[in-house]
Amino acid sequence: MTSVLNEPYFSDEASAFERLEQIVWPNGPVCPFCGNMGRMYALKGVRTKPSKKHPEGIVRHGLRKCGECRKQFTARKNTIFEDSPIPLHQWFQAAYLLCASKKGISANQLHRTLGVTLQTAWFMGHRLREAMRAGGMAPLGGGGGIVEIDETVFGKIEGAPKKAGRGRSSFRNVALTLVERGGSARSFHIDGATIAEMKPIIQANVAREAQIMTDEWAAYGEIGREFASHDTVNHGRDEYVRYEGGRPVTTNTVEGFYSIFKRGMKGVYQHCKERHLHRYLAEFDFRYSNRVALGVDDFERTVRALGGIVGKRLAYRDSSAVRF
Q1: What is the per-residue pLDDT across 106-138, written as a single tens digit (0 to 9) for each?
Q2: Contact 134, 308 (CB under 8 A)
Q3: Rg (CA), the chain
Q4: How far is residue 223's CA from residue 192's CA, in Å, rounded to a whole number?
Q5: What's the first-to-final CA gap in the chain, in angstroms?
Q6: How sure is the predictor about 184, in pLDDT bands with cuts at 50, 70 and 90?
């Protein structure tokens, strides 16, 4: 069996740009400034300005010039790779490592493996998680599918004293996750485990004909009335699964998702600030929704992740200072 890392675009910059162009421009080059798809010129042999580190400059692979607006660009423009000094083939290596690791890969590990600074490795990870973030998808449970719903807490809200107020969600971050049995997962970082917070999200992301399954919490009782059926398991009485007409009533699937998420967050990443939690949730959602059980191997998962790089540029000042 040949290693997938033997693919040319994992080690050769020119091949990496050819691969990126196939992803960004499946129907041929498009000017990111004016939208022109006609006259386009490939600029060969152009180099960056000489510097102390690179006295002869660096070859600008994939450089093109629009025949209409006369501006120069590469396929990096308007992607998570834009303005990055990291070689493109190293970005592809990082994407594969992140997608192939079931519980993620730490910034320290990327830093050591790729030979970049720790700060750079951390930022690369967040840009790639941004590419994994999905939106505008069809509701889960269409056609009467089963959707398991649960919430969990993780970490501490920034600035909140430990055990402030009443209830576990008064000082901890809350995540809501919807998992379609045999399908994909969607997670949301919410402000609190309340009906007001959860109901709009569930209504927007679960089809009305879906069969939903939750634990016994009373809030789900009100939400469940809007769907085809609502079954619960009573964890307070140590009930985790029961069978009704051969159909298992359980939330073990979504709890299994949380098991992988928490092992990754505590064992690999170890620390996550509140403002970054939504991206880590997107990462674990993506790998779960593109898992081997659904016929997606590590290589295909990486290809799918790279399919989300367009229009998601993330600046370092934004990732380090702002919660999206």
Answers
A1: 999 999 999 999 999 999 999 999 999 987 789
A2: yes
A3: 23
A4: 16
A5: 42
A6: very high
* Cβ neighbours, 10 Å, residue 218: 7
**Strands lying side by side in the sheet with 146-156:** 185-190, 172-180, 146-156, 211-215, 229-233
Encoded amino acid at 320, one letter: S
Distance between CA atoms of residues 103 and 34, nearest Å: 41
Angle at CA 92, nearest 5°, toward 130 and 11? 165
Task: Name the residue among 83, 186, 76, 79 with its Cα closest to residue 130.
Answer: 79
Q: In terms of C-beta density within 10 A (0-12 exposed, 13-18 middle, 19 or more buried), how is residue 321 classed? A: exposed
Determine phi and psi for 319, rounding to 5 degrees. -70, -30
pTM over 0.70? The answer is yes
Q: What is the DSSP string of 92-115?
A: HHHHHHHHH-TT---HHHHHHHHT
User: Side chain identity at 46, as an amino acid letter?
Assistant: V
Least Cα distance to 257 among 131, 154, 155 occurs for 154
Q: Where are the domains of the chain?
A: 146-289
Q: Position 25: which residue type?
A: W
Q: Which helix (H) or strand (E) holds 90?
A: helix 88-100
Q: Which class is 146-289 in CATH? A: alpha beta
